[in-house]
Amino acid sequence: MNVKEIVGAVEDSVSRHDEWRGKECINLIASENVMSPLAWKLYNTDFEHRYAEGMPGKRYYQGLSYVDEVESACIEMGKKLFGAEFLDVRPISGCLSILILLSSFAKPGEKYVAPSVPAGAHISQAEFGAAGVRGLEVRHMPLNEEEMNLDIDKSRKIILEHKPKLVNAGGTIFLFPHPLRELREAADEVGAVLTYDGSHVLGLIAGKQFQDPLREGVDVVGASAHKTFPGPQGGMIFGNCDEHYRKIKPKIFPALVSNHHLHRLPALAVTMAEMIEFGEDYAKQVVKNAQALAGALCEYGIDVLAENKGFTKSHQVIADVRKCGGGAWCAESLEGANVILNKNLLPWDDVKNSSNPSGIRIGTAEMTHFGMKESDMKHVAELIKRVWVDKEEPGRVKEDVLEFRSGFLDVKYCFDDMK
Ligand code: DSN
After folding, report:
1. So what's the architecture of 40-271 in CATH?
2. What pTM value is reported for the model?
3. How far does the centroid of ligand 1 lie from the alpha carbon of residue 173, in Å?
């Protein structure tokens, strides 16, 4: 192919992707979502071409008066949504938010306590992730597999034994609110800072349907802005204590963020406004949908975790799919039916088996954003069961998925495009 043909092929790939993932698939990746039409429109502006090192009103470049207005609007609305005294939207991803917190509160060689990856933590919490890059000595808090939550007695013991500088809660398998008040007490006994990876549940926190980390003892929250919180891909950090923010600021700029990808900011401002206006209804429905989906999958004989706890209080459903064919087969076969989700390590899996783990993680945020309700989730469960349990040919199930998805093409819980 010559370069013009390559460009043509790229255009073709993009338009096929947009049609497929945007209109034809049931998207159940728990870390994904879509922006509202207005946020999406304001994502593509001249902000993309500009540089803005520093903070609103204190920049190292000229030409940023409108950027400052938009970034300040994000900060003000974000503080209101999360009840925070400070909020910073410059981290360009959730993972970078975590690295900034690790760098702000623990020095290389110091001790750090967080859940392990199979116990639900993001890879940034591992020795081979951001925690290792920061040179921290990592100790992991175990999960109580029955409860699918941190084992607080063992976690407390680990904190008291290891006396870390920093303890982190939250994660990427996140079915139930973490025991933050108890972690706060343990952290206080050893003088540790308590942070929280709120990436997955940020939209549920904004909609007041999960837990309120800052009121339950967390010092600082790091998060991404595009999972249950349906904003543009990026990160944020917030908390209530000036002294903490004084430590965080230099780790953002000049240490780890130079320019902060300004085109995100107008879309983020719109999303924050929409979450203030519609976040509670949206978040309630996300959780109801996850519970309905979990219940229906369980009735079809699929091993959904935490049945004794009502399956979930978040957007996530976790299933052990070993008897259906394993995590890899279950995820790949569903893609053939246009149902998109991801295989996932479960607490008992060895991290080395990540290419074929026991589990599947399902999230309801995006499809809720497109207006699906509990009865639709029951239908989604039936489509999944036809592939996993009945072993129906995915291509045949896909025909029904296409038909079903065509009824959910407009994003809800958002302002109509006002221009
Ligand atoms: N990779 C994301 C997830 O799927 O949980 C977190 O960044």
Report:
1. 3-Layer(aba) Sandwich (3.40)
2. 0.97
3. 9
